[in-house]
Design brief:
alpha/beta; binds 4'-deoxy-4'-aminopyridoxal-5'-phosphate; four-stranded parallel sheet; P-phosphate_BS; 337 residues; six-stranded mixed sheet; Cysteine synthase family protein; TrpB-like_PALP; 10 strands; TrpB-like_PALP_sf
């Protein structure tokens, strides 16, 4: 296995910004350059704009890190075509990496917890990558999906990208998603994004703080995902959320809290309700983690009529027709709407 150490993935060692127009592969050139959609608010509220990351080819912002990590590792001579790339993903990174591996002629193995969205994992095999389904066990179990990814990379001489520790994950967002956002929305006052690995929020936050340090950066997690707890320097408690994409209980190296002003927690019910309203009332089909971020955006917009808020919609609602958009699924889990 090729070890990815922090120096290979350092924040300083490569100065080129990413831009979708520089991508020569016509399929991969569809990554990034996503729309900023105005979200209706009342005249007494601030403005909210939704960064439509679901427009990426496999439906999420994770296409950016898949492309960015592979590109930077190639430039640094760590990987080359024909190598085996291995990644553990609960969904969206899986599709992104399968696409990039396909177009760039890499082999790819994705390990994923079995219970995750079949729509998301459907990308993996459709795009020619290998899917290794893992049981939903805790991190200390050797069958855990990240442990399995590491083991496969070791056994098959592959490269484990490890988005949960790889500094290129937030770095790609600081050089690509962040600048793209400030180009589109030069006057923004707040950026809000859901957090799992924290890569999206951390990278964008680093960029916007350099762009204008008065911009407020807010990460969003679920009440029981505990990133907010880690942010406040408290010890972990129980964590369990039905919102796919939000974090679990730990502070990860990909969470650059020094650029993040606050992490707010949203209940699963409010996240789902907000995602359903965005679709039903405004025709903007987003997933549950984006619903959580939009919920916080409304809180800010209500408090501050002058706010100009960008919300990251990490993925679209079509991956969740049989979960959060399904009344029976919600009722079975005790959600009342
Ligand atoms: N929303 C969704 C739907 C996701 O798949 C993820 C990734 N786990 C996130 C939000 C959080 O993104 P990040 O890992 O960059 O914090």
């Amino acid at each position: 296995m090729t070890e990815l150490n922090i120096s290979q993935a350092s924040r300083e060692s490569d100065s080129r910004d990413f831009h979708s127009r520089d991508i020569t592969d016509p399929v991969l050139a569809r990554i990034g350059n996503t729309s900023l959609l105005p979200y209706p608010t009342s005249p007494a509220e601030g403005n909210i704009n939704v960064k439509a990351e679901f427009e990426n080819p496999t439906g999420s912002m994770k296409d950016r890190i898949a492309f960015g990590m592979v590109t930077l590792l190639e430039k640094r001579g760590v990987i080359s075509q024909g190598d085996l790339l291995v990644e553990a993903s609960s969904g969206n990174t899986a599709g992104g990496l399968a696409l990039v591996a396909n177009r760039r002629d890499y082999d790819a193995v994705i390990t994923a917890p079995i219970e995750n969205s079949p729509q998301k994992l459907g990308y993996v095999e459709a795009l020619g990558a290998e899917l290794v389904a893992c049981p939903d066990v805790s991190a200390d179990d050797e069958r855990y999906y990240r442990t399995e990814a590491k083991r496969i990379a070791e056994e098959r001489n592959g490269v484990w990208l490890d988005q949960y520790t790889n500094q290129l994950n937030p770095e790609v967002h600081s050089r690509w998603t962040g600048p793209e956002l400030t180009d589109q929305y030069p006057d923004l006052t707040h950026v809000i994004a859901p957090m799992g690995t924290g890569g999206t929020m951390s990278g964008i936050a680093k960029w916007v703080k350099e762009y204008d340090s008065s911009i407020t950066t807010i990460g969003v997690d679920a009440i029981e995902s505990n990133i907010s707890t880690a942010f406040d320097g408290e010890t972990d408690g129980e964590h369990s959320t039905d919102v796919e994409g939000l974090g679990k209980g730990e502070k990860l190296p990909t969470m650059w809290f020094e650029y993040i002003d606050d992490v707010r927690s949203v209940s699963d019910a409010d996240s789902f309700r907000q995602a359903r309203r965005a679709a039903n009332e405004h025709g903007i089909l987003i997933g549950g983690s984006s619903g959580a971020a939009l919920f916080v955006a409304h809180e800010i917009a209500t408090q501050d009529p002058d706010s100009e808020i960008a919300v990251l919609a990490c993925d679209g609602g079509e991956q969740y027709f049989d979960t959060l958009f399904d009344d029976d699924w919600l009722a079975d889990r005790g959600y009342e709407f």
